[in-house]
Design a protein that fits this description.
CATH superfamily of one domain: Butyryl-CoA Dehydrogenase, subunit A, domain 3
Distance between the termini: 35 Å
Radius of gyration: 21 Å
CATH topology of one domain: Butyryl-CoA Dehydrogenase, subunit A, domain 3
Oligomer: single chain
CATH architecture of one domain: Up-down Bundle
Strand order of the largest sheet: 1-4-5-8
Largest sheet: 4 strands, mixed
Structural class: alpha+beta
Strand content: 15-25%
Shape: globular
Number of strands: 10
Number of helices: 11
CATH class of one domain: Mainly Alpha
Length: 379
């Protein structure tokens, strides 16, 4: 099946994206974000989980958490290109919530077949979730997990779990006698201990989670296959978030240099300011095209999805880094201050760059796909 025109981004997808932008503009402007998460500037402040639960409930009521849930499991079953448009607006607003983690868990559960339907139905009913699939070394591939399932119990630890203090469920990967399994666990189940990490990103929280004799429901006995099928969607949605955040960085910086005067001219008059901003725009456009290309591949050409998702995450990571640097630099003397909003996005982008592989990691995986033997020889 070939790709449709405009990546399959139809009127329904456009309506979802525009309504999400209006929702965040009306209910959660950047000033509200700053007041919510940046009230304490002390570097030794304790790790906090600061978010607007009432606004999150409104998002659940709008059905955003069930968008990727198949219709057979009680969800909407929207294509990935439409979901990517919503996530782009989430990144533009940098809204602290577990939507990205819930969508990621949804894609993995959908790849589990019939065994994942009950968990998907819980998400469709409003449950939030996070992936707990990463070991202490930061690896999630090839069954690299520090959790083991034996005698009906989970034991071990999962690391770098995103928004762990906001969710009600965890999708945990664990070694079993038959291979790698996936398990559906409540965060308040006996034996589950959520230990908060201190991270630079003020719009998210992160934790490592220990499991001690935790009873769990297995949703897949072949976790490697399910993760392999779903990870392109996980990377693509994360890349969409970065594209949205980069668009905010560009727009905000353009507005600032258009009003800030120097030598009786707006800062934006000078070529040393114009040219980097054009470069930011070009990098965002490239990353955005690759994001929707990857989302369209997930919908229409699953055989291409892995390659396309690696390209999208690599490009979005580099665009995020460049947009972050230019936004701080071109805000001049206020750009690095706590009161300036740009530091919130700078930190979110830095976290997203590293999450589930940076640009170099994804390009290395892309090389394995495109020129495999040559890449192996070169290494």
């Amino acid at each position: 099946m070939t790709q449709p025109d405009n990546f399959g981004f139809n009127e329904e997808a456009a309506l979802l994206k525009s309504s999400a932008r209006k929702f965040f503009a009306d209910k959660f402007p950047t000033s509200t974000l700053h007041a919510l998460v940046a009230g304490d500037h002390r570097p030794d402040r304790p790790s906090e989980c600061l978010w607007d639960r009432s606004l999150w409930q409104q998002m659940v009521d709008l059905g955003w958490t069930m968008l990727a849930v198949p219709e057979a499991s009680g969800g909407v079953g929207m294509p990935a290109v439409a979901v990517a448009g919503l996530v782009e607006e989430l990144g533009r607003a940098a809204f602290p919530c577990p939507l990205l983690g819930t969508l990621s868990a949804t894609y993995v559960l959908a790849a589990c077949g019939a065994a994942g339907e009950q968990a998907l139905a819980e998400i469709a009913a409003g449950s939030s979730a996070a992936l707990a699939i990463t070991n202490a070394a930061g690896s999630w591939s090839a069954g690299d997990t520090d959790v083991r399932f034996a005698d009906g119990k989970l034991n071990g630890g999962a690391w770098y779990v995103q928004d762990a203090r906001k969710v009600g469920r965890l999708l945990v990967s664990a070694h079993t006698d038959a291979g790698l399994g996936l398990f559906w666990v409540a965060t308040d189940a006996p034996g589950v201990n959520v230990q908060a990490d201190t991270i630079v990103d003020l719009t998210r929280d992160q934790a490592h989670i220990s499991f001690t004799d935790v009873a769990a429901e297995q949703v897949s006995a072949n976790g490697l296959a399910a993760l392999g099928q779903a990870m392109p969607a996980v990377w693509t949605m994360l890349a969409a978030d970065m594209v949205g955040a980069a668009e905010w960085q560009l727009q905000t910086t353009v507005e600032y240099v258009g009003t800030r005067q120097q030598f009786d001219r707006p800062l934006g008059f000078f070529q040393a300011v114009k040219h980097p901003l054009v470069d930011v725009m070009l990098q965002i456009d490239q990353a955005k095209s690759l994001v929707y290309n990857a989302a369209c591949a997930i919908d229409c050409e699953p055989g291409r999805a892995l390659q396309a998702a690696h390209m999208a995450k690599a490009s979005a990571s580099e665009a995020a880094a460049y947009a972050s640097g230019r936004s701080v630099q071109l805000h001049g003397g206020i750009g690095f201050t706590w009161e300036c909003f740009v530091h919130l996005y700078f930190k979110r982008q830095k976290h997203s760059q590293m999450l589930f592989g940076d640009a170099a990691w994804h390009r290395a995986r892309l090389a394995d796909i495109v020129i495999g033997p040559l890449a192996a020889t070169a290494s």
